[in-house]
Every structure is written in C-alpha cells, then in structure tokens.
Amino acid sequence: MKKLLLSILAVFVAWQILDYIIHGVILMGAYEETQNLWRPMEEMSMPMMMFVPLLVSAVFCYLYYAFVSNKNLNTAIKFGLIYGLGAGISFGYGSYTVMPIPYSMAFIWFLGTVVEATVAGLIVGLIMKPETASEQ
C-alpha cells in the first residue's frame, strides 16, 4: 500500500509539471486564440483543477497495482503507453470532433496525454517493482 500511495503522489506531481509545460507554455497561444471556448480565469475552479488530476493519478496507479501481475519497468512503460493512447485519442481527437479547436491543439492534447501516461508508467514501474529477498 505504501508503494501505491507513493506512486499516486509521484505521478500527480509529474503530471502537474508536464501539464504546465503542455498547457501553460506550448499551448498558451492556442488557448488565447480560442479564448471564447473557455471559461474566464476567474470562473475556473482551481480546487477541481487539482482534484481531477489527483483522482486520475490514483485510478492510473491503482489499475497497475491491482491488475498487472508481472510488475517490472518494461511492463509498466507499456501499460502507460497503452493507457495514454486510449486516453489521448479520447481527449485529443474526441474533443476535436465536437469542438471548433485547431487540429494542432487536438494533436498536442493527444501527444501530451501519451507522453504523460508513459511517464506515469515509468514512475510506477520504478516505484512498484517487486521486492527483492533483501528488501523483505
């Protein structure tokens, strides 16, 4: 359980950093150009903007913890990549089908999600590796 909680925290922190780079730096110009699609800053909920990624971090880590029996770095990275592909297609291209956003934004949402989930896989793979005999 300790490794699960540590993984959740580490993935959450990594995602916050990557989200800042993706959304606060790379996509900032695109968000400004499409500002009519978004809530004004004063209407955005910072608590929800923190809670949602924490909850998704917990779900990601729990899925790996509970359902992946062969826990190793290679498996964890593959898990993250596959999770990221599924989530990225939904987030990036699913949004593109119903919102008038530039294709480049949809692609970066997709790619960013794949990168974030793969990094999360790397993190859980490093933290949730099986204990060796000397660690037990």
Describe, in short, the structure shown.
Helices cover 76% and strands 0% of the residues.
Apparent shape: elongated
Distance between the ends: 14 Å
What's the rounded overall pLDDT mean? 94
- SS field, number of helical segments: 5
Low-pLDDT segments: none
Encode the helix/strand succession as letters: HHHHH
Provide an overview of this structure.
The chain is mainly α. The chain has one domain (2-130). It has five helices and no strands. It has helices at residues 2-26, 28-33, 46-67, 73-98, 103-127. Helix 4 runs antiparallel to helix 5 (103-127). The longest helix has 26 residues, at 73-98.
Top keywords for this entry?
136 residues; mainly alpha; 5 helices; 76% helix
Tell me the layout of helices and strands.
Elements: H1 2-26, H2 28-33, H3 46-67, H4 73-98, H5 103-127
